[in-house]
Each structure stands twice: as structure tokens, then as C-alpha cells.
Amino acid sequence: MANREDPTKRELIAIIGDEDSVTGFLLRGIGHVTTGAEAERSWAVIKDEDDKAAIEAAFDRFTTRKDIAIIFFVQTLAEKIRHRVDQFNDIYPAIIEIPSKNHPYILENDSVMKRVLQQLGK
């Protein structure tokens, strides 16, 4: 079932990506660290040696947070957990797949674009 909560409570952008991609977003001012006893970051750097479980943990963490509106997800990492990304059907947070520095964006693999094309009957 789609998440139909008040979108005004969601004000942060998260990023799941390689170090270069995340650094680029942070340098542009996209990134937030909550204060308090349980400080949380709105980004996850996934390294080459990290396994699929690390990607899934970041995905789960950001898709369940109530303050995240958009997740920018490097497409090559999304491919590693494609089944999870394709099954995610909540309205919030929106998952936007982006290219990495070393890999191009592949339209046919993007789960959002697949849904758009399906709705258009293509």
C-alpha cells in the first residue's frame, strides 16, 4: 500500500552512492546530520568492497525514515538490489536513479521509467 502521509514533514534528500557521487552532493549542500542521542546522516557511501547487505541496509534505513522526501541512488548500486528497488512502491520517498562518474545511466534499467512507460502503454 502506498504511503499517503503529509509530505510537508518530509524535507530531506538522501543519497546512496560511491564516494565521488556522495561527495559531489555534499559539496552542493545536499546532506544533513541530525543532532541528538541518535545522530543520523542523510547519505551512505558504498565502497567497492561492501557487499549487497550494506546497500540493502542503506536502502532500508532511508526508505523508512519519515524525514526523507527523495533518495538519489547511483544506478550501478541500485542494480545490485534491483528486486528491492522494483518492489518499493510507496510515494515517499521518491527514488531517483542517477549515473555514477564511471558508469552511464541506462534508461531501460530505471524502475521509475519502467513504470512510466508501462502506464503509457509502451
Fraction in helix:
25-40%
- In terms of DSSP E residues, the strand content is 15-25%
Describe the largest sheet: 4 strands, parallel
- General shape: globular
Q: What's the SSE pattern?
A: EHEHEHHEH
> How many strand segments?
4
Low-confidence stretches: none
Strand order of the largest sheet: 2-1-3-4
* Multimerization status: single chain
User: Counting H and I runs of at least 4 residues, what is the number of helices?
Assistant: 5
User: What separation lies between the terminal Cα atoms?
Assistant: 25 Å
Classification by helices and strands: alpha/beta
Rg:
14 Å
Description:
With 122 residues, the chain is of the alpha/beta class. The chain has five helices and four strands, in the order βαβαβααβα. The protein has helices spanning 19-27, 52-64, 75-80, 82-87, 111-119; strands spanning 12-17, 43-45, 68-74, 94-98. A four-stranded parallel sheet has the order 2-1-3-4, sandwiched between helices. The longest helix has 13 residues, at 52-64. The protein is globular. The two termini are 25 Å apart.
